[in-house]
Design a protein that fits this description.
Layout: H1 4-12, H2 20-42, H3 52-87, H4 96-119, H5 122-131, H6 137-162, H7 168-201
Helix pairs in contact: 2-3, 2-4, 2-5, 2-6, 3-4, 4-6, 4-7, 5-6, 5-7, 6-7
């Protein structure tokens, strides 16, 4: 992936990769990294001693999740290459439709994995909203916002691929799975963000 600067410059270029899928994974990684930061600033503090075991678990889980999301940035770019090549196949080629279908499934799989990964760590954000250091509770709110954005972005990248699939049964099933995860994740993240925002604004 290189540096963040390199990624952002590549994202801004005319190249189709990296694109929205990689951006969603990066945003998710930023959100989960904030969770790790909050947990690291909470661990060992007497005020939160009753949560120490859970905080240590959060640090461990967040680290694994960030690594996976960063890896998915590369995987998203890799999955787009076969799709890009499939579009270049002459329309009269008898194998074009199947090759394109397979490429769409591959391109769809990475954002679906991003969505699953982000959805799977929302409970960490929820826990830190209650058990994390109140000195950095705003960062928990930002983590919730980032995870919400990452989930929405990943789902969007699922839909752009399923829309073009000939296998409508597979497309509909994939969409339904993505929609379910998205709805739950967004609902939880928005609730966390609003709760923290209200607490900070109301003193």
């Amino acid at each position: 992936m290189g540096t963040v600067n390199e990624f952002i410059k590549a994202l801004a270029s005319a190249s189709p990769v990296p694109g929205g899928g990689g951006a969603s994974a990066l945003i998710g990684a930023a959100g989960v990294s904030l969770c790790s930061m909050v947990a690291n600033l909470t661990t060992g503090k007497k005020k939160y001693a009753e949560y120490q075991s859970e905080i240590e678990d959060i640090i461990s889980r967040a680290g694994v999740s960030v690594d996976k999301l960063l890896e998915l940035i590369e995987k998203d770019a890799e999955a787009f290459e076969p799709l890009s090549k499939a579009y270049g196949i002459p329309k009269d080629d008898p194998n074009r439709e199947q090759i394109l279908e397979n490429a769409l499934v591959g391109a769809c799989s990475v954002p679906m994995t991003v969505l699953k990964e982000v959805s799977g760590v929302i409970d960490i954000v929820e826990a830190l909203a209650v058990k994390g250091s109140k000195l950095v509770v705003s960062d928990v709110g930002i983590a919730a916002s980032a995870c919400c954005c990452a989930a929405e972005g990943a789902a969007m990248n699922v839909y752009i691929n399923t829309k073009l699939m000939k296998n409508t049964a597979y497309a509909n099933q994939t969409n339904a799975e993505a929609e379910s995860m998205l709805k739950e994740s967004v609902s939880k993240c928005e609730a966390i963000y609003q709760k923290i925002s209200d607490e900070l604004r109301c003193g």
